[in-house]
Write a structure and sequence with these properties.
The chain is an alpha/beta fold and 315 residues long. The protein has twelve helices and ten strands. The termini are far apart. It binds zinc ion (2 copies).
């Protein structure tokens, strides 16, 4: 039990336990400290959000990624590997964070829910997009699966349903509660999906120039065209040739806005924007909340929608 989760953990049962144990239950940090709750380890923020919504007061959720840190290249310290091995359920996305994949394979293979077994990943056509009648116009990044499925709310709802099922298997007494909470979350995600569909229905432009190609699922769902400065991970520097291509694309599609992310430096986006006479704005891939911790998945998705509607001239 961590200091952060302690206040929520003080249910009557937990309080009684603490009294009996003289508080020692809390002195052992990490998973397994609270017998009344299912200890869930989530690999990064959107999975933490789903686990907290579906698990409610019946779970303790630990996020392996720090707020304000970019989670693709997450490294685990020994304490976190310990959390993975002690967790009752590890909720992760295979192929997104190699360090987590490895820790799960070695310590929690039989107690993990891999999101990619619930929702198959789409092939990455990172960065480029095709124009009709043009050949080789845009650079297609080859191979790879796109992990950013949480940016499609309908896919995230499917993931939440599966998590409810798994939590119900771990904690059968409260299986119905998990199902109910997943259904509530699905209702909210469906509402968000409807807002996106309506909000992006009629727009002057449909091309979004983004820093890393995290928006493939969002683009697919709402008929946008993603033009990424870099591929599926944000840590690679775009090649000068790619910068020139993206600048050409941005001009060709009369982009008014070049998007950057909260957890990655805006420098490259600012360079392109200056070159083509566009503005920059944040379009958040919600890989993690920013360190100052505003909002949650739903509110950041709605902020993204407002940003997109302005940038794309949607009516
Ligand atoms: Zn990403
Ligand atoms: Zn184009």
């Amino acid at each position: 039990m961590t200091a952060r989760t302690l206040p929520r953990a003080l249910t009557a049962a937990a309080t009684a336990l603490l009294v009996l144990a003289g508080g020692t239950a809390c002195s052992t940090a990490g998973a397994g400290a609270d017998p009344d709750r299912v200890d869930v380890v989530a690999a990064f923020y959107p999975l933490q959000y789903v686990a907290e919504r579906v698990g409610g007061g019946a779970v303790t959720v630990t996020n392996l990624a720090r707020p304000g840190a970019e989670p693709h290249d997450l490294e685990l310290n020994p304490r976190q590997v310990g959390q993975v091995s002690e967790a009752e359920l590890v909720f992760y996305l295979k192929g997104f964070q190699p360090a987590v994949d490895e820790a799960v394979a070695q310590n929690a293979a039989d107690r993990a829910l891999d999101v990619t077994t619930v929702v198959p990943l789409r092939d990455a056509a990172a960065g480029g997009h095709d124009h009709e009648g043009e050949d080789g116009h845009a650079e297609e990044e080859d191979g790879g699966k796109d992990p950013h499925l949480w940016l499609d709310p309908t896919r995230l709802a499917t993931v939440a349903d599966k998590l409810a099922e798994r939590l119900g298997a771990v904690d059968p007494d409260r299986a119905a509660d998990y199902t109910t909470r997943a259904r509530t979350l699905r209702g909210e995600l469906d509402k968000l999906d409807a807002e996106y569909t309506a909000g992006l229905k009629t727009c002057q432009r449909r091309e979004i120039v983004v820093s890393h190609a995290a928006f493939g699922y969002l683009a697919e769902r709402y008929r946008l065209e993603q033009i990424g400065l870099t591929g599926l991970t944000p840590d690679t520097e775009p090649a000068p040739q790619r910068l020139a291509e993206v600048a050409r694309e941005a001009r060709e599609h009369a982009a008014t806005t070049i998007f950057f992310e909260t957890l990655v430096s805006p420098k490259v986006a600012e360079t392109i924007a200056a070159e083509v006479g566009a503005k920059t704005a944040v379009l958040d891939p919600i890989e993690g909340l920013s360190a100052d911790g505003g909002g949650d998945y739903l509110s950041v998705m709605r902020a993204n929608l407002t940003t997109l509607r302005t940038a794309l001239g949607c009516s």
